[in-house]
């Protein structure tokens, strides 16, 4: 690749870049924390049907994510490779957010069909924006310092959007009462949908693509896929992503129900604060991750964060009792903070496995690689759907019904033990990942894979 300009990025461009992730965060956090409760409490779907809706939508992503990864690497316009996708898809994306949180249809089958269709549309629009957006910073500048600065704008802006979704939407909806919950959700996401369109347009029009990427035009898609399958570190990253998203999404699916039913959070600010611990914990976890990785091997930090995530979840089950709202808020914050320590490490590894695979196979698969990683993220979220649905049915949960002691304890177990199990499985899988900072630097300098001896040494370090 080469740059077409050495122009530095302005503050406005940094803000424009960060604004794109604000819209994406509204969608992904809504799908992680609110949609499941909305489907069973407002739309009236059974827990099992709601779970299968999540799975069905993500199975479609098995096609759309890799296809979008391929398209974003092939199609180029006068705008560049990525900005046009964000501009074109911004309006349907905003509309799909509103549709997702509206109730349409008198019969059960009609409501089920509308919800499924709206979710599919939202997921496709998210994919068509997210994959180009992930790639965008790579063509805005080839200066690592400028890229880092861009991300220092991006992540706080994304967290601001997350706080709005996790705190203020639950506050607004619950303050309106059960009878008006449907209208409250619709109005909230009408506003968020319009805001998403505005910030996506701002992103598309005020960022610049300066770096020219030479796409692998003569390499067939089949060859790129076969090359990906030979990238062992990429495969480990994908599997780890699936496992972690099962843990995160299962906890997120049940969090609202746990907060209101088990912790006895009242409507309004109490449930808003409880749900907001997801965002607060995420911010704390990212800061802790930076401090730890500056001092210790990042792979060791990653695995120990998973051990601690499992331990903290189990501790939450045994320490937090029914109605212990303040303890529930504290432990939900701690669980989210500890489990988010691994997220910056995981996302930073995406570029590393791409470079590793290109050196190992000689084939540039960056577009497909990102597409499949995005699919892995959504696959984990989808698998959490049936897990959540069947678990809630098994423990006897019914929306709006008075819950027995056994059902309440089942809610506590579901929000703690299920994530803990998947955190531990993920730690076992990630044990074979060996690209730490030293390994990556040697790859960059030598433009070849370090020796097997060095790889084995990395395994030994991570095992310690």
From TrEMBL:
GO terms, biological process: carbohydrate transport; sodium ion transport
Keyword list, A-Z: Membrane, Transmembrane, Transmembrane helix
Single GO MF descriptor: symporter activity
TM ranges: 21-45, 51-73, 85-105, 117-141, 153-173, 185-207, 234-259, 271-292, 304-323, 329-350, 379-397, 409-430
Stored CDD domains: MFS_MelB_like
GO cellular component terms attached to this protein's record: plasma membrane
Family note: Belongs to the sodium:galactoside symporter (TC 2.A.2) family.
PANTHER family per the UniProt record, alphabetical: MAJOR FACILITATOR SUPERFAMILY (MFS) PROFILE DOMAIN-CONTAINING PROTEIN, MAJOR FACILITATOR SUPERFAMILY DOMAIN-CONTAINING PROTEIN
Protein name: MFS transporter
Organism expressing this protein natively: Klebsiella michiganensis
């Amino acid at each position: 690749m080469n740059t077409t300009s050495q122009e530095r990025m302005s503050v406005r461009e940094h803000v424009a870049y960060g604004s794109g992730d604000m819209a994406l965060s509204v969608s992904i956090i809504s799908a992680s924390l609110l949609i499941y409760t909305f489907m069973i409490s407002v739309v009236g779907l059974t827990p099992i049907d709601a779970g299968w809706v999540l799975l069905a939508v993500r199975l479609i992503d098995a096609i759309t994510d890799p296809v979008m990864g391929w398209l974003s690497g092939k199609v180029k316009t006068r705008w560049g490779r990525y900005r046009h996708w964000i501009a074109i898809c911004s309006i349907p994306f905003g509309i799909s957010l509103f549709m997702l949180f509206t109730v349409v249809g008198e019969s059960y089958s009609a409501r089920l069909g509308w919800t499924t269709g709206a979710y599919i549309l939202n997921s496709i629009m998210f994919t068509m924006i997210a994959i180009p957006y992930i790639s965008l910073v790579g063509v805005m500048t080839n200066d690592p310092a400028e890229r880092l600065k861009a991300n220092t704008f991006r992540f706080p802006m994304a967290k601001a959007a997350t706080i709005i979704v996790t705190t203020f939407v639950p506050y607004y909806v619950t303050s309106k009462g059960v009878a008006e919950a449907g209208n409250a959700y619709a109005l909230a996401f009408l506003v968020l949908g319009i805001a998403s369109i505005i910030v996506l347009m701002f992103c598309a029009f005020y960022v610049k693509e300066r770096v020219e990427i030479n796409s692998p035009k003569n390499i067939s898609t089949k060859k790129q896929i076969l090359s990906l399958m030979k990238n062992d570190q990429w495969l480990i990253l994908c599997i780890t992503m699936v496992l972690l998203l099962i843990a995160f999404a299962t906890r997120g699916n049940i969090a609202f129900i746990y907060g209101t039913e088990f912790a006895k959070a009242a409507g309004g600010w109490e449930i808003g604060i409880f749900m907001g611990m997801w965002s607060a914990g995420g911010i704390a976890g990212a800061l802790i991750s930076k401090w730890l990785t500056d001092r210790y091997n990042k792979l060791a930090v990653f695995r120990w964060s998973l051990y601690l995530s499992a331990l903290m979840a189990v501790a939450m089950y045994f320490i937090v009792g029914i109605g212990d709202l303040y303890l529930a808020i504290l432990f939900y914050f701690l669980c989210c903070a500890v489990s988010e320590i691994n997220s910056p490490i995981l996302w930073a590894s995406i570029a590393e496995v791409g470079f590793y695979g290109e050196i190992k196979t000689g084939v540039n698969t960056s577009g497909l690689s990102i597409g499949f990683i995005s699919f892995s993220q959504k696959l984990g979220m989808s698998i959490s759907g049936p897990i959540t649905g069947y678990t809630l049915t098994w423990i006897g949960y019914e929306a709006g019904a008075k819950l027995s002691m056994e059902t309440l304890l089942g809610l506590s177990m579901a929000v703690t033990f299920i994530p803990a199990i998947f955190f531990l499985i993920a730690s076992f899988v990630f044990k074979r990942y060996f690209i730490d900072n030293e390994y990556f630097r040697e790859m960059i300098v030598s433009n070849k894979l370090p020796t097997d001896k060095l790889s084995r040494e990395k395994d030994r370090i991570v095992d310690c």
